[in-house]
Amino acid sequence: MTSQRQDLVLFSNQSVIPSIQDEQHRMFLITSTGSSGPQWLINAFVETHSKGSPQSLNGASGRNTNTNNDNHNVMTTILSLVHGKEHYTSNFQKLQINSNEYNIVDCMTDLVMKQIPKYQGNKLKLLQSIVDQIDNNTRQVIILDQPEFLLSLVAGLTADELFNHFINLIWRKCRLLIINNNVDMFQDGVINDNVNRDFVEFQRFVTMCHYKAAVILNLRPLATGHAKDITGTLKITRGGVNWDDEKSNIHVVENEYLYLTEKDSTRLFYG
Amino acid sequence: MSSSIHNPVILLKRVLNLTESSSFILCLDTVAQTSSGVITEIVHHRTSQSNDNDNILIYVSFNSINKPDWATHFVDVNAVGGVKKATELIQSYLPSAKEPVRGLKKKSLIVIDSLNYMARTGLSQFIASIASPHATIVGTYHKDLPESLSHQSRQESLDNYPSALDLLQFMATTILHITPILPDSIDNSNELQDHLDTLNVPRGLNNHTFQLLLINRRKSGRSLTYNFQINNKTHTYDLITKKDQMEAELETPEMLQDLTTFNLSTSDKQKQAKDQVNLPFLEAQQYGSSGGAIVYEYEKDDDYDEEDPYEDPF
Amino acid sequence: MSFRKRGEMLNGGGPGGPGAMRRTLPNRGGVLPNRGAAPGRTSMAPPTADNNNRIPVRGASNSAVSSVGLTTGMNKLNINSDDAMQVDESDNNMELLMELNHPGVRPSTVSANLVASTGCFDLDKLLSHMGLPLGHSLLIEEETTTDFQSILTKLFAVQGVVHNRLNGTGDAHKQGNTHVVFISMNQFMAKELPGVYKGSRKEIKKSKIKEEENKLSVQNLANQESKAQPTRYKDLKIAWKYKYNDESSGKKHGLDDNNDLTLSDDYKDYTSQFDITSRLLPAATPQELSFISPMQPVPTILSQLETIIKKHKDKLIRIVVPSFLHPAMYPPQMFSLPNAVGLLHGLKSIVKKHSNRTVMLMTLSKEPLTLLLQTQIESMFDGIVDLEPFPQEMLQYLEKIYKGQPNKVQHGLVHLIKLPVFSDRGEMHHKHAEYAFKNGKKRFEIEEWSIPVDDGVDDGSDKNKKEDSSNPQRQEAQKQTKQAVDF
Q1: What is the nearest CA distance from A170 to chain B, expressed in angstroms?
Q2: 3-class secondary-structure state, position B244
Q3: What mean pLDDT, rounded, does chain A reach?
Q4: Does the beta-carbon distance from C342 to A116 stay under 8 Å?
């Protein structure tokens, strides 16, 4: 196999997160499945935001890193519904990311036992209390790990409410919002018979994300099943929103990588 | 006037220019190709033609927090506190309906980012309340975003009320169906749909060239339907006729390229030569009435044995 | 001291983090140089760099606590210190578990985690860690209305009870080392737990005679054992990996001889073998096993569980949720997303909070669930194994082929969907129909699956079958596929 290692590139200027000084709020969407988890990609984004490029990908090859100095003292905030704080700190420590460069809002630990009962059915107040835990810093990048779980956990919450009273409020607090959404439930296609109210809300939510995102990062396991040398594919496509930045004149580069995640490291290559 | 209508491209330009008297333009799109291309096209016409300050471009957002550069007014429905407040705001930005239509050079533009976020029971009322003789409403409806079923439970059964899509299509004076030009990797729209249903978005969508199906309802009651290919960058529109579509479906040499490492395509010369070849059994068919007779000619190496009763086929 | 501990907690507490193994190392300089070369070790850095890493990383984690507190104001400071205290507490427990030489805990063979046995040797093996990593959860799914899952549930639970009884004599029930928590209405479960397999009838007789002979020295033996254990653990904590590799072949041969599970001496009590036709005697007591009714509001269930975990501090807690959302045992409102997913989210939160001494196993029949509910449940688990029992025709076919060898007949396929620790990292471990299971009196076996070929008498393969079930399996599988190709 002559497959060469590839660098992760999302934009035509070879960047992963372009540094743009405008007032727009952008969104990336990661769609992942249970057997092609996004942790390495989240790590790559955090690393890019704090160091300028995803150095740990492909085993820190001697790559010229055009460190974005303007990104210093800029935070990455992770809000997670699926993992506790320790999960991320241990990940970021391995990447040697300074702990003052990220902030973790843990919505896993005690959410059901303490936080939800505290608001006794007032779902909007509950959402607000979570939003309030995020600092207002419009230069930061915020990563939401599986926010769709709120649709399950908060009784009667609709996708529209989740967007209007949660996602949009968080989005306003940053220049780039990265949402990871698990799409296992859609892998059998759309279920038309027996239209399920809950399912429609999940479908609405993830479709809305597709419309709002500028970049869609699609993680899928290899269709042929388990393989030793390939974990899955990462497909980068344009989202519903044009990344129209006439000044810097960059655009999204659509691409499809194969990747291998093994022993805490991930390598990308073209198929 | 009537002559120009016969040229579909001019009709489309008039629609996008907002010079055609259409008060509600409905854009129907999917994730595969969103309406942003059409909206920017309309805005492009608007801003390139006139630089006067009486341009009123209102962006009504139900679910976006970004104010587009071109918008003169940005109404974030959720931030201002609901549809009712938003309606009042929009009305306040527009010139009063009592003002004579001719006094203004240009119609105002109201862009609604998406009509999917309203309960369908409120839709017609909302559209009616912001409609004005001075303004054209351009509303987008995402066809692939299912209607929420949660609104319904609280109210009486809406089983017999039309769906939001039907409702909007009924009210609209112009409908723009926006579809992508299928990328090479996708064979047909069914395959595309399968990919989208599993949220496995293929590459090559949301391009700056796309297809547009225009349905324009004339005042006479006539409805005109045309298919275009739009290029958003060069601002060129090409009419796609049925013939074009038929041709596109026929096999062309280009379709065979890059499928394998074998050369499957034929050059024109080869094609001509191929057509001239006499196929072996054409002659036999010309005998017509003789049916299944066997034509046998002796050749010099043939060994004919008179003794053998089975040897002679005749 | 407490300062150092906090650093360590943040350093190694996380799942998949530089785990417990590493943290105890500096005290044993003598063993250190060998670490890098330990086979099967999943290290992210060369051994020398590893040593240097420790200091800056620890420093970073300390500043994490302080800086977060500083930047985010009083509100969060409180929460943080709360968290820190809780984890600190469990960190102590962690050390205790290690120092107590918990017989049901051993290091993972493939990662830096400590693992606990599921009570089923082959399932432990399938999870590649030789067990379920502490602080992780495993979901056993079943496709049809069959009930193979209940066997695994019982094995998982009874293994905990057996470990609990290992440590000593009369006081065992008070002291103990393990506590099993059932989240179930079915209190009979406690009485249905299988007993330890004592060998064939002949062997039982023999052992009884021996027991009589040795009665006087039992006390001595126990003492010797308890003395011997600590040194063994300290010395072999690193070297076990060599040990494992050295012994794995021998162990498997041992397996072949009498089809018994003779584990290496190091972890001889780690996995017991059970006879599912027998009953555990004496039956499990409330000191060993608690029940929480799922017919309560979710927050109540969770806080009851937390109380039990706190009450049994210093013990390994094995949480069992048998037949989750079984329509006969769960009321309809439990199927709503906020209740069903909420309960799991809460359970995951608790397991992670006490990640140094809890493991959880849940079984689930997929049949009555919507795809939405199923996928939401699945994404709350660290590991997922799916059982797909064969339909009757397939069983008949297999019975025909394995004529005269009814114990060769597999009962269904095993699909591996998620592996603890690895799937979290994003590795792909979805293996569809690569394994098969069969349930026997004394063992729930999981083996590599290959469709057997119906070609009448084949002496060669028959011999193979008699010889062994695990080692030549691969050869056998290859052989069979070869036959298939030839055919």
Answers
A1: 11
A2: helix
A3: 85
A4: yes
Write down the pLDDT at residue C456: 55
Same domain, C213 and C341: no
User: Rounded CA gap, A185 and A183, in Å?
Assistant: 5
Please answer yes or no on whether C353 and A109 come within 8 Å at the CB atom. Answer: yes
Query: What is the 8-class DSSP label of residue A208?
Result: H
DSSP C430-475: -EEEEEEEEE-SS-EEEEE--PPP--S--HHHHHHHHH-SSSTHHH
C137, β-bridge pairs: C360
Report residue B279 as tokens. Answer: 């196929």
CA-based R_g, chain B, Å: 31
Q: Tell me: do C214 and C319 sit in the same domain.
A: no
A127 interaction partners in chain B (CB closer than 8 Å)? none
pLDDT 10s digits, C111-148: 888 899 998 999 999 998 999 999 999 999 998 888 88
CA pair distance C21, C234, nearest whole angstrom: 11
| Among candidate residues B145, B152, B211, B207, the one with its CA nearest the CA of residue B176 | B211
User: How many Cβ atoms are within 10 Å of A29's Cβ, its own excluded?
Assistant: 26
Q: What is the mean pLDDT of residues B274-291?
A: 62
CB C345 within 8 A of CB C78: no
Across residues C222-235, what is the average pLDDT?
46
User: Cα-flanking dihedrals φ and ψ of residue A128, to 5°?
Assistant: -60, -40
In this prediction the pTM is 0.76
Contact C263, C270 (CB under 8 A): yes
Element (H, E) at C154: helix C149-166
Beta bridge partners of B177: B28, B213
Phi, psi of B239 (to 5 degrees): -75, 135
Nearest chain C residue to A146 by CA distance is: C379
Class of domain B2-249: alpha beta
Strand partners of residue A31: A181, A218
Q: Which two tokens stand for residue C472?
A: 């030549």
- Could you tell me the end-to-end alpha-carbon distance of chain A, in angstroms, rounded to an integer? 10
Instruction: Check residues B264 and C190 and name the one with the higher pLDDT.
Output: C190
Query: Do the Cβ atoms of C426 and A39 come within 8 Å?
Result: yes
What pLDDT sits at residue C263? 46
Q: What percent of chain C has pLDDT over 90?
A: 25
> In this structure, is residue C214 part of a structural domain?
yes
Residue A182: the pLDDT is 93
Summarised one tens digit per residue, pLDDT across range B174-216 is 999 999 998 888 888 888 988 888 888 898 898 889 999 999 8
Task: Tell whether the model's pLDDT for residue C210 goes beyond 60.
Answer: yes
Measured between beta carbons, which residues in chain B are less than 8 angstroms from residue A187?
Answer: 198
> What burial class does residue A194 get, using C-beta atoms within 10 Å of its C-beta: 0-12 exposed, 13-18 middle, 19+ buried?
exposed
Domain region containing C23:
2-99
Indicate whether C185 and C290 sit together in one domain: yes
Kindly report the number of other CB atoms within 10 A of residue B232's CB atom: 17
| Paired sense of beta strands C431-439 and C444-448, if any | antiparallel
Which tokens go with C445? 């076996």
Chain A contact set for B114 (CB, 8 A): 211
Domain check: are C312 and C370 in the same one? yes
Q: Does one domain contain both C287 and C418? A: yes
Question: How confident is the model at residue C320, as a pLDDT?
Answer: 94
**Mutual orientation of helices B120-130 and B164-171 as an angle, nearest 10°?**
20
Amino acid C306: pLDDT: 93
> Is residue B223 within 8 Å of residue B216, measured between CB atoms?
yes
CB contact under 8 A, A240 and B202: no
Q: What is the ipTM of this complex?
A: 0.90
Mode of pairing for the β-strands spanning A215-221 and C114-116: unpaired
Residue C204 lies in a domain: no
E strands present in C188-262: 195-196
Q: What is the pLDDT of residue A247?
A: 65
Token pair 């409180």 is found at: C78
Separation of alpha carbons C385 and C368, rounded Å: 18
DSSP state of C101: T
